[in-house]
Specification:
Shape: elongated
Structural class: alpha+beta
Order of helices and strands: HEEEHHHEEH
CATH class of the largest domain: Alpha Beta
Strand order of the largest sheet: 3-5-4
Number of domains: 2
CATH architecture of the largest domain: Roll
Strand content: 15-25%
Helix content: 40-55%
Number of helices: 5
Radius of gyration: 21 Å
Length: 156
């Protein structure tokens, strides 16, 4: 079978696209925390690795609720709130340029606190995983540069 120049280019584009998808999916870095319907016994976290600050939250719901959808929805909401709380703790521990921790800077700057809370509420939900008992593990992340911009600060 002889390929025309146009079909060769088309095949090259398809092959490059497939390789790109494989490369990006392999580098996404969002680790699964649930395997076979169960939350991992050990959860290793590197919250401030690379370009993102990442937090996880684990939530559950009342098993007596009438539907799986209600249980999963409430578990996910609880996991999001927990992950936001974890992220808040992490961000408070970050050191700003000049050697001051965010937590210390918040004591004197209420505008900084408001912008930090807004940034955390806007963190990207990168993964929601449900357990076999309708619990949920949520992974949130926010780019360091976005957080710096919203808070109008620079991290070390």
């Amino acid at each position: 079978m002889k390929l025309t120049r146009k079909s060769e280019v088309g095949l090259a584009v398809v092959a490059a696209s497939a390789l790109g998808v494989l490369f990006l999916s392999g580098c996404s870095g969002v680790q699964s925390r649930v395997h076979s319907g169960v939350v991992d016994t050990v959860i290793n976290q590197d919250p401030a690795h690379g370009r993102y600050i990442t937090a996880i939250g684990i939530g559950g719901s009342d098993p007596d609720l009438s539907s799986d959808t209600q249980r999963k929805s409430l578990a996910r909401d609880a996991a999001i709130v927990k992950a936001q709380y974890e992220m808040l703790s992490m961000v408070k521990g970050v050191t700003l340029k000049g050697g001051v921790k965010v937590e210390r800077a918040l004591e004197t700057d209420s505008a900084l606190e408001a912008s930090m809370l807004e940034a955390i509420r806007g963190a990207e939900i990168v993964k929601s995983e449900f357990t076999s008992d309708n619990g949920c593990v949520v992974t949130l992340r926010i780019p360091r540069t976005r957080l710096e911009k919203l808070m109008k600060v620079q991290f070390e």
